[in-house]
């Protein structure tokens, strides 16, 4: 980028700057006219100059010029008006001039503003464009937060400066020069004095400001580093807390803030010192006028009239001069900022613009071999990770790379994936250098996946299809307002040097995924998800989603209909004990007592708590059902048990996670409560205490807690009370409970809970696994599978994919590569987060899947486990960065290779 | 089976016999009671260990994958604990455990188990004793296997 801001602004806004200069010059005409007008109004109609008699009239708005050679040219002789008419006329002209001046100002300011915003847009875009073209080594060194601060905050003032960059100095300089010349004409010597002082100002002030600039640069750097550190703290919060280093971080931040404070305070002091000096110099000139000029006037060497005129003219000089100096300050300030930013972004060698050029056409298949020729790769410290390796991967061939972490296979794969650049040697595809080929070829015909995953914030589906979004493939047709808006967008983008790619276009390259369009893409997605064993993960996410049944009416209906099918299926497979269904007439042993009593779920916990404590309804119903006393006894029993179990544990003990009845803090409360009520009959216990004890029952599940508190008789009573609860529920409690109804979709429950309409038994560890498998199977047979899966693809993966597990992210990353049709697949231990068995399974799946393609692609797989090498055509073994051995498949069990590998 | 009964069963296991009854109850409460039918896997070799199992009733086989298929190396039965190595050393499971009969077990989660060891040193000592026993058994089996191999070579 251009290192000087003024030149950058000039080269991009030359025409506009000239235009605005012209408009400013033009605006001076009404501006000066409006200066002269008040004098005319006062002297003329008000004081009566030229209106000697009451009937006298004058010409209003005569237009005449004195032209050389022609003499006076009279275009319009004006309207004859009396004194009042003249006053009104001239006042109206004044008003008109005010409006015209205002409009000029409005136009100039908006024009300048727009100019600035466009330039800002251009700079920001160019910077991001540069980031996209940074070499990999540089990206390892920079902190993302610092780059984003530069692009977001540091270039911001440049937009504001753009409009004033050339107009302001021209305007103010002109004004100051006019004033100076006027003084010089009045009195040469006094003019000379003024000129000398101005010269002193113009030389000293900028010199003093140099220090301001140094400080300004420091301020910018420290602020940028601060933002980098803050983002580091946020990213590394786990490590910080885990190592108790939060106070070290506090110290670091405090020290940084202290430094920033010092710089800013220094800056502040200097700024006002300079201001003081500036003001002083400006005021010293009149002092010289008065003293020296006055002395000469007394001596009779100077006309008093001249002195007054000089002093009068001088008052017009400091204003523009001060503004000019301020403008210069602003200029230097943004220039420093700009130079700083440009320096940070001046990285060599950048990826050539041509390499990243957009290409709408599908890339032609690569027919040559992918090969490393005498390739060396070094890390940042300069030590060689790969040394003089030559290896060739023929189209259609599968190669396993072994040799462990220090071997060099990973570095080789990274070099093939263009994540690192060769230190020496080359990587070629056929006869072309890999780095000279456009990314529209290498980024499509070669797919790379490693265990280092980046997931973008958005839905799972977006992330899966991310690798297909190379170019806007469809032309979106807009109509009406949208068309106008699109035209405006295009025009503005062009004016700011931004590309015109339409984000609303369909960027997905269906062909590259082996599909013909959006309709059959889903089948491909499904296949890839199956291959990478992601389907079950996504289904698990999908079935846990809550949906609004009003929006998906048909689907909700089908889910409700599935309840019966599930029941029949479980019966047929003799697995009925896996799930205990909700039946209006019987107790559900796997659900809590509360759920059984309400026969529904609480949708608003807060209001429910309140109602439980203060609403008379519950107590009356419990009493009527004969449950009040039983629940009290049961609550006591639970409290006794829990207090006994957890009394001695410190409050942060992990066992408390399994305590559902109360929190760790409540243990001593209940302990004291038990002391108080033990042995006393219920009537003597206060209302509050009773509620505290009774509410413990609501979370009790017999098979889980195993205190032996639920008898058959009690369960029957609860079921009887259930009806009273639902029938007699007062109006003010209606919204907080959603009842279980066999024929209705529950909006507050997840999809799986709606299908099950019951609770999974505690007895089988893999009960929920098995149920999930059966439910998935049912979805498939009822044709609901894809619909549910689509809900899963809508799942928001969170910032950096944090809402997925590391294993899921890696599987997603692999799927993202496999869904693309490429000629070469480079897999660099892509599944490290998974257990060995799953890794093997997915690897075999992927190999089979890719081999079954019409054009069999070449695959290079860096393996962590040597034993898997038998699935490949060839094995390349690396040691200490060198290719030690290449073998076409391991011939037999006890070969030399096996020995070498072990 | 109630919590009380589980405590009784836990008491019969050597590993836990030294613990006060209140702690046994806590252990039982924080663990999951699980049931398996014959032929199911408690866990699989190579997986990451997340829990240990105390077998309350039934039998299971300990299987190790070899190039010639799975080899049964031991059998565990009532009142014994399996799967504690993987959660102690953070290594993948060293063997597969498959039920031979219907089986009932208490599943003790890794974090809970480690916390218990930290809280009750006598339990840690007991674990050490069990491991040392196993090591000496393995060593003697290895010695035997070696001498057999030597004899075969000679």
From TrEMBL, chain A:
Q: Where are the transmembrane segments?
A: 16-33, 87-108, 179-205
The UniProt entry's coiled-coil ranges are none
- Keyword hit for Lipid metabolism: no
Q: What is the lineage of its organism?
A: Bacteria, Pseudomonadati, Pseudomonadota, Alphaproteobacteria, Hyphomicrobiales
Can you tell which superkingdom this protein's organism belongs to? Bacteria
PROSITE patterns from the xrefs? ABC_TM1F, ABC_TRANSPORTER_2
GO MF assignments: ABC-type transporter activity; ATP binding; ATP hydrolysis activity; ATPase-coupled lipid transmembrane transporter activity
What GO cellular component term, any one, is given?
Answer: plasma membrane
Q: How does it sit in the membrane?
A: Multi-pass membrane protein
Carries keyword Membrane? yes
Any idea what this protein is called?
ABC transporter ATP-binding protein
Alphabetically sorted, this entry's keywords are: Membrane, Transmembrane, Transmembrane helix
Residues forming the ABC transporter domain are 370-902
**Cellular location(s):** Cell membrane
Q: What Pfam families does this protein's entry cite?
A: ABC_membrane (PF00664)
**Which SUPFAM superfamilies is this protein grouped with?**
ABC transporter transmembrane region, P-loop containing nucleoside triphosphate hydrolases
Grouped into one coarse class, the protein's main location is: membrane
- ABC transmembrane type-1 domain residues: 85-326
UniProtKB/TrEMBL annotation, chain B:
Looking up CDD domains in the UniProt record yields: CAP_ED
Q: Does the keyword Ribonucleoprotein apply?
A: no
Q: Which GO terms describe its molecular function?
A: intracellularly cyclic nucleotide-activated monoatomic cation channel activity; protein-containing complex binding
Gene Ontology cellular-component terms listed: membrane
Keyword check for Membrane: yes
Sections of the chain in a coiled coil: none
What domain of life? Answer: Bacteria
Which Pfam family, any one of them, does this sequence belong to?
A: cNMP_binding
Localization, UniProt: Membrane
Instruction: Identify the keywords attached in UniProt to this record, alphabetized.
Output: Ion channel, Ion transport, Ligand-gated ion channel, Membrane, Transmembrane, Transmembrane helix, Transport
Give every Cyclic nucleotide-binding domain span.
15-134
Gene3D superfamilies attached here? Jelly Rolls
| Record protein name field | Cyclic nucleotide-binding protein
